[in-house]
Each structure stands twice: as structure tokens, then as C-alpha cells.
Q: What sequence folds into this?
């Protein structure tokens, strides 16, 4: 079955950096787009970043403002989220996600993603 396993969350001071990883198994990684979402209590899950199956197209939530970079490594079946200049408002549980369909070109709707990781907590202290 399809599994997504995240790692890399933790506690960081404001202005610091973290790199999240998500390793995918159970499907042909190179055929599927990937995304990172985040969620805080009482709020809906929001898209942080999206990368298409080839890595040739990316999308970022408006709040990212050039601070984060999504990338993928086909040899490792892994998608990354490099987060720089972190701020306390970035505190959330971060999830990686993959859609049901291969070659999915959408980006920002959580309901379009069928597979999710377990989530990793990112806490940014002020």
C-alpha cells in the first residue's frame, strides 16, 4: 500500500531553518505530484507547497513569500521542504500528501489528495 513517512520537524528559534523530508513507498514516485500542507488547531489544512511529478512545476502558498523551497529526489523517493526565515506563525503540524491520480496538475485543495503522512510538528519560538 502507499505510505508517506515524514521526518525533520522540531523546535527552532525565529529566523531559523528546518528541512522536512517525506519518503514515499508503494507507488511509482516519478508519476505523482507531491505537496506539503500544514494545520493548526481549529483551522483548515492549508497548502504550503506543491511540486509536480517531474519537478518542473512548483506552487507556494501566499504566506511563503520566498522563504521555503520544495524539491524531490527520484532516486530516494523523497520530497523535501526547506524552510528558512521561520516565524512563530509558521508553527503547525506539517503533512506531506500525494494525489490518487498520476500526473495530477492541481495544487491547493486538500480534498484532491488521497494519501497523507502522519504529520510532523514544527514549532518556532519567538
A:
Amino acid at each position: 500500500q502507499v505510505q508517506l513517512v515524514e521526518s525533520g520537524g522540531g523546535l527552532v528559534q525565529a529566523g531559523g531553518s528546518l528541512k522536512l523530508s517525506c519518503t514515499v513507498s508503494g507507488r511509482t514516485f516519478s508519476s505523482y505530484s507531491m505537496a506539503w500542507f500544514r494545520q493548526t488547531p481549529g483551522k483548515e489544512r492549508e497548502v504550503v507547497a506543491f511540486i509536480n511529478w517531474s519537478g518542473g512545476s512548483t506552487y507556494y502558498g501566499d504566506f511563503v513569500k520566498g522563504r521555503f523551497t520544495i524539491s524531490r529526489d527520484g532516486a530516494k523517493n523523497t520530497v523535501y521542504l526547506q524552510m528558512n526565515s521561520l516565524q512563530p506563525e509558521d508553527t503547525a503540524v506539517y503533512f506531506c500528501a500525494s494525489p490518487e491520480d498520476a500526473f495530477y496538475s492541481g495544487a491547493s485543495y486538500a480534498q484532491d489528495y488521497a494519501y497523507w503522512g502522519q504529520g510532523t510538528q514544527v514549532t518556532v519560538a519567538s
